[in-house]
Design goal:
This protein is an all-alpha fold. The chain has helices at 3-6, 18-40, 54-59, 61-72, 78-88, 113-119, 125-134, 136-141; strands at 148-149, 154-155. It has a two-stranded antiparallel sheet. Helix 4 (61-72) crosses helix 5.
């Protein structure tokens, strides 16, 4: 996942000691925070910049696809809407491990966006806690709340960012 950050010929991320893996994750989050703040700084006209969260797109892909098409000046046809509906609610389209185009479902464009949205919640809570510590500034800036409760040693009940109501 983070191998691209290390550069060509570098040790693979998965082979790095835990402290170096943590450092790489922290650097990634700080770089993302810098990018998001730059975009939000007002340097770009609202006609040239839009920030969209993964959660927003996953919860209402048609609404946001229409907005993005309008933003870049493209027509949003009925055919486009049907395609987006199909690829974002694609769980039922996957059969025998293959998508409708015959690709292995793991590499398919067909996804149930709500399933993907919730998938991270099955991660080891200790790993989630590590990422929260390494990415605190970014998560705070984006409106997320820490979901790992140190006192209870588990994930909190409402892990959703403030900008999206849980569907």
């Amino acid at each position: 996942m983070f191998d691209y950050m290390l550069g060509e010929g570098s040790t693979k991320y998965s082979k790095l000691p835990p402290a170096e893996q943590s450092d790489q994750r922290r650097k990634l989050c700080l770089r993302e925070l810098s990018n998001v703040k730059y975009g939000d700084s007002g340097i770009f006209s609202p006609d040239n910049y839009i920030r969209l969260s993964h959660e927003e797109m996953s919860v209402d892909p048609i609404k946001w696809a229409k907005r993005l098409y309008e933003f870049v000046g493209l027509e949003f046809s009925q055919e486009t809407e049907l395609y987006i509906e199909g690829i974002t609610h694609g769980k039922s389209l996957v059969q025998n491990g293959k998508d409708p185009d015959g690709r292995f479902a793991g590499f398919s464009v067909f996804r149930d966006t709500l399933t993907v949205l919730y998938k991270w919640m099955s991660a080891n809570p200790k790993h989630i806690h590590e990422i929260e510590k390494e990415c605190t500034e970014l998560l705070d800036y984006l409106g997320y709340v820490n979901i790992y409760d140190d006192n209870l040693n588990k994930i909190a009940e409402n892990p959703w960012p403030k900008i999206v109501d849980k569907p």
